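Changelog-adjacent note: as of this version, every example in the card shows the full chain rather than a window. The one below runs 223 residues end to end.
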Amino acid sequence: MVRILVVEDDQYILELIEEFLKAQNYEVISAMDGMSGLEIALSEHFDVILLDAMLPNLDGFSVCKMIRNKKEVPIIMLTALQEEQDQIKAFEHLADDFISKPFSFNVLIKRIEAVLRRAQPLQQANILTCGPIIVNRDAYTLTYEQQLIDCTVKEFDLFVYLLENTGKVLTRDQMIDHVWGYDYYADSRIVDAHIKNLRKKLPIDCIKTIKGVGYTIDQTICA
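Full-length structure tokens:
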């Protein structure tokens, strides 16, 4: 399900947007000020962010720039400002789109669909995410807040295999077969050793041990 963060300080408008988007089968999370919106945006995974320009505590333009410094999530700015310079300012702060209030909800949906389509090349580039961690399978890299996480090839392959099977518990034998190969004969403790090292390197504790079975991804963290 597509997850959308809506940051809007007008409660009436916020409730209308929430109700409409949920009716379109989107999962909606909301915030009513800039600081709260920024914290939620950086701590969770979202497919699109709808961001009001005029917000208490921290304005939407600043929030947009700070999010963009950390993530590549599509951002659509919403504002009652009509001046061309305000639209230019939104794009200068790296917003993906700009909608002036009042707006049609049907137009809003089309704009959301458009930015989602433009974001598809990121998915096609074999990108996986685990909360704030970005996994590029083509480049064999893990990044957190634009910083590389140093890991071995086997650690990378184990983490990707777990992410690809989010929601499932993988046994040690399954992990050995997938990462080392069916003809590799090794004690299952080799998996434990690699997982231990990987946990030390990851900025979040997202790998759960299922006693007597194996490992799984913590879905509450890697949402």
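Structural remarks: The chain is about 45% helix and 20% strand.
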